[in-house]
Design a protein that fits this description.
By secondary structure, this protein is mainly alpha-helical. It has helices at residues 2-12, 43-56, 83-108, 121-133, 136-158, 170-205, 209-241, 247-250, 266-274, 292-322, 325-329, 333-370, 387-393, 396-412, 417-437, 446-452, 454-466, 470-503, 509-512; strands at residues 13-17, 20-23, 32-34. Residues 1-21 have a biased composition (Polar residues).
Length: 521
Amino acid sequence: MSSATTTGTSLDSNPTTNGVTRRTGVDGSASREKPQGNGTLDDDATEQLRRSFRKKYRHVEAVHSESRPSCLSHDTTATPSFLGFRNLMVIMLVVGNLRLVIENIQKYGVLICVTCHDFRKFDLQLGLALYFLIPCHLLIAYLIELVAARSARSSRLTIEKRDGTTSPTEDEHLKFQATWKLVWVAHALNVTIALAFTTYVVYYHIHHPLIGTLTEMHAIIVWLKTASYAFTNRDLRHAYLHPMEGELDALPEIYKQCPYPNNITFDNLTYFWWAPTLVYQPAYPRTDKIRWVFVFKRLGEVLCLSVFIWFTSAQYATPVLQNSLAKIASLDYPSILERLLKLSTISLVIWLAGFFALFQSFLNALAEVTRFADREFYEAWWNSEGLGVYWRTWNKPVYQFFRRHVYFPMRSRGWSHRMASLTVFTVSAILHEILVGVPTHNLIGVAFLGMFLQLPLIQITAPLERMKSANGKLLGNIIFWVSFTILGQPFAALMYFYAWQAKYGSVSKKALHSPPPTCPT
């Protein structure tokens, strides 16, 4: 009796805390509380009581107390996080490529040779000469627009004052069109000569493909900038001379900072030449100051990534390409497919490094120096639900040029969306072939077809972009990555490398005087 009394007392009785007398039954049932004061328990007291109960009765916790689905089940209401799987994939990617690095060095040794590359003195001289000569065509475009602006000022003084409340007469419209035809012919001859002359020199006189590519890219950029400069000033000149009712108020607000023809100055053109955009505007959003620490960080990234691209290309891409030559010559399709799959990883890493170096590092450094505030050079293209989204988001400067100066003008003239898109991709395909085929001295049409055949892929993935379900967008993203990493760049790199080897052999002197590796990769 004494023992039972003692046990019952120890189980049932609890000291009074915070005005509450706690009593717990011997069967472990819910506590009975006698509230004191306001008659209720506060949250802290309730939680303290529950912790005390769990500590005392360790084997009675209700583990299954509600209906819950599995984490990966479709019935779950909360989307699970896959951060751990992402970390695992990164680790596996690093481990797998580290194994390839060790295997590559064991098979081929160190292939990096700073003094082996055939940078001919004549190639460097021509490249530097063209670097300073190509922008002269922008100067010619400025002189053409300067003459047109002075003519517009004179016409403005002689014609009836236009304040945006009346429309131009038929004679005024015909006169403007006649003047524009002369200006258009002058601009067309200027940009055509610039691009044609550069293409001729690169194709026939600059041997090294890297120097040729940089030179040709510079010429294409100036060609696009000159075209934008001419088309934009044409419309501004028309709005200045013959504005229809309401047109003056419809001009972008930022253009009021430098209205036509005050924008036709050498300083204005020089800024456009250096600005990281292909679309001309009389004025751009500007930052207040230059952050030089930011500039040097971005330039450091460009330098490091350039070294990485050079190292990866020479040490890993070149052996794979070299070992593919015999397979291509013998049309061994299974082996060619295996080479493509192996090259896809290397080319993707090189492309991603080049993308970051150009669009994130270099363009941001250039924008900081020029105080160019609009720095949306790309969007999250890696999440593209289809090829159309990719081409609209990965290279915003080029996309904005074609949308503003090719696609929209054609649509406003009554052309269909399909024809306007076909024109955009045809022009882009020609420029891609010039950029790739001319420096490699092999106009084999692979770059042209690679761009032109994007249209049917865009049509295939367009319905997936419009689907509201996540599965459709996921499928579109998979199609994008497969076409991008396997069917696109690796195949183009393999074809142009094969064409180069068939015509010249390797750029590297070391490769020219040494037999290719015989051991398989």
